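Chapter review: from sequence to fold.
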Amino acid sequence: MDEGVTRIGVSLPKNLLDEFDSIIITRGYSSRSEAIRDAIRNYIVEYKWLEKEEGEIVGVLTVLYNHHFKGTSDAIISLQHDFGDIITTTLHVHLSDENCLEMIIVKGDMAKIKKLVDKITTIKGVSNARLITAIREQS
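The token string follows.
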């Protein structure tokens, strides 16, 4: 099935492009275009998972944060208690003197998991929060 090809232009900061080019070489892509198509496909799949608000899922919420921000650790722990019905396990990793990684295994209703992700993302000191879905159960 030939969908045709559309050419686009993209403006990127040099450091971002340099890092992307390094990944392209490491991963063995034959061109930037191939890597960009792959990245866009992954982004679309992730977005489609997140836009659906029904059904049960299993996944991992990874949270990178600076524990020196006052109240960040307490806010994350408090949310974990608030969402205890969908959190099955947590893992805390000390990455450096400042940064920690929290891995939160979730299982339950997608809408409720999205609320957890949204609330954690807005905590001051959290630099990255990402939900990786492992299984989607059909209801």
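Two observations follow directly from the output. The mean pLDDT is 89. The domain at 54-137 is CATH 3.30.70.1150 (Alpha-Beta Plaits).
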